[in-house]
Automatic annotation (TrEMBL):
Residues 90-165 form the Thioesterase domain. GO terms for molecular function: hydrolase activity. It holds the Pfam family 4HBT. This is Thioesterase domain-containing protein. CDD domains: PaaI_thioesterase. It comes from marine sediment metagenome. The lineage of its organism: unclassified sequences, metagenomes, ecological metagenomes. InterPro entries: HotDog_dom_sf, PAAI_dom, Thioestr_dom.
Amino acid sequence: MVYGDGLENRCSCKGTVGSNPTPSATIYGLDFLYKTEGRYELTKEEHYRKLERMYASAPTTKYYMSTIQVSEGHAEVILPVRHDFLHVAGTAHAAVYCKLLDEATVFAVSSVVHDVFVLTASLNIYLTRPVSEGEEMKAIGRVVHCTRRLFIAEAELVDSDGREIARGSGIFMRSTIPLSPEIGYK
């Protein structure tokens, strides 16, 4: 992702880390650097890698064998379609589409929230094309708007040839669950 793409204009709210407001801890700013529990400083890139490790540690991720890449306001989730993802008509079940669109949008939002886990409040999806076993599905999520409490993100899901197979958008919110090693954020 190229920094300065305007995300800071779409997400105008500023954040703080813990209970100590820090001028350099602008969650959506390009000069992001903050302290976690007063012990060390964490850069944006370190935050993104921790989110990727947290994603990889989830049981559902291990089952589906999907992968993720996170950057500022953006996330991409890739999944090869296996036989056990198909419904009786021989194409991927809508639940697989939903999983990828949800994860791409949640982790796009998580890239700009640095202290707590992000939850999906609402997710709308539109399935536009079937996908078959052996193809790859890639969800590309991005943050489009945020306030202090709610975030809006959207994602496009494409097949191996880059054709859109689904689209989704949702509303997301901060939880009370801290980002910590206990939930895989390490």
